[in-house]
């Protein structure tokens, strides 16, 4: 039995006439009748009762008609879904992101992707910046938003935006009212900074900013989360250099001061060279328009 037999039987059940059903299926009656007989033989059940004048469904035929319609509908849906998934219009997209991206590009990227691909379910996963590349390579996520770092074999890197670093200090800090600041203004300050194994690119940018001025920063506390850094600055436990996108959402008890010749950090979209999820192409297309 195959799907053709189901179509034949449904035609017969809807017309209750072998000749009319055969014509609907573009067949002559004798081969059509043989197909119905083969179907009944394969099932081991009589589906239609025949006589010289009438055709009617048996109890088994009435039930089989319902199942046949459902099976064909399921097959049709499976075919449509397969085509949509292959075209990246249906399925799931697993997107990893660092918290800094949530303060900048992530909301708009997700909003535009959902509008263009409403049948693709987006799964968001917040990951520390240093781990996003490995998660993409290992196939745990389909794409990731993170700071740019040296090229990694097996990954493609799409630059999305460039974010400058700014200084944040408590509102009552001596630098709070400054129009700008430089590394020399911070040489006696405790710098709150994420460790390298959490946000290596951010830490490297901060360290390079001081080294270019001939200084070594005085690193104080080293929390792992950007939110914690902001909280510690508000508590008066140090100052920090953070991306401008983060400083825009800082607390009212924190002052933001532009840096002179500020370091820049690129945020990129990472995907695997051997990516097998068609939904990723749509994400990359939208990301390109946002640069």
Question: What does the model show?
Answer:
InterPro entries: LysR_HTH_N, LysR_subst-bd, WH-like_DNA-bd_sf, WH_DNA-bd_sf. Keywords: DNA-binding, Transcription, Transcription regulation. It comes from Ketogulonicigenium vulgare (strain WSH-001). With 291 residues, the protein is of the alpha/beta class. It folds into 2 domains: 3-86, Winged helix-like DNA-binding domain superfamily/Winged helix DNA-binding domain (Arc Repressor Mutant, subunit A, Orthogonal Bundle), CATH 1.10.10.10; 92-289, D-Maltodextrin-Binding Protein, domain 2. Helices cover 44% and strands 22% of the residues. It has 11 helices and 11 strands. The strands form 3 sheets. Strands 3, 4, 5, 6, 9, 10 and 11 form a 7-stranded mixed β-sheet that branches. β1 (48-50) and β2 (55-57) form a beta hairpin. α6 (106-116) crosses α11. The radius of gyration is 32 Å and the shape is rod-shaped. The protein starts with a helix and ends with a helix. 31% of the residues are buried. The mean pLDDT is 93.
């Amino acid at each position: 039995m195959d799907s053709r037999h189901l179509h034949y039987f449904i035609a017969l059940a809807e017309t209750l006439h072998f000749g009319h059903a055969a014509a609907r299926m573009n067949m002559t009656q004798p081969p059509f009748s043989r197909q119905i007989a083969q179907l009944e033989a394969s099932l081991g059940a009589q589906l239609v009762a025949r006589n010289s004048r009438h055709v009617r469904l048996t109890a088994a035929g009435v039930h089989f008609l319902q199942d046949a319609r459902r099976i064909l509908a399921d097959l049709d849906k499976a075919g449509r879904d397969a085509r949509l998934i292959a075209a990246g219009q249906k399925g799931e997209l697993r997107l990893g992101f660092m918290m800094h991206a949530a303060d900048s590009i992530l909301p708009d990227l997700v909003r535009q992707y959902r509008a263009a691909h409403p049948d693709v379910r987006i799964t968001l996963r917040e990951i520390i910046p240093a781990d996003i590349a490995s998660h993409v390579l290992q196939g745990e996520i389909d794409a990731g938003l993170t700071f740019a770092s040296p090229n990694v074999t097996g990954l493609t890197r799409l630059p999305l935006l460039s974010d400058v670093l700014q200084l944040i200090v408590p509102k009552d800090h001596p630098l709070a009212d400054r129009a700008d600041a430089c590394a020399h203004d911070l040489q006696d300050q405790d710098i709150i900074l994420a460790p390298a194994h959490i946000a290596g690119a951010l830490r490297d940018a901060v360290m390079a900013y001081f080294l270019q001025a001939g200084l070594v920063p005085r690193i104080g506390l080293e929390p792992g989360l950007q939110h914690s850094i902001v909280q510690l600055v508000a508590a008066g436990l140090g100052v920090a250099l953070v991306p401008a996108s983060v400083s825009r959402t800082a607390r009212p008890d924190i002052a933001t001061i532009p840096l002179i010749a500020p370091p820049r950090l690129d945020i990129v979209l990472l995907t695997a060279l051997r990516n097998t999820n068609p939904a990723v192409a749509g994400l990359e297309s939208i990301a390109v328009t946002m640069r």
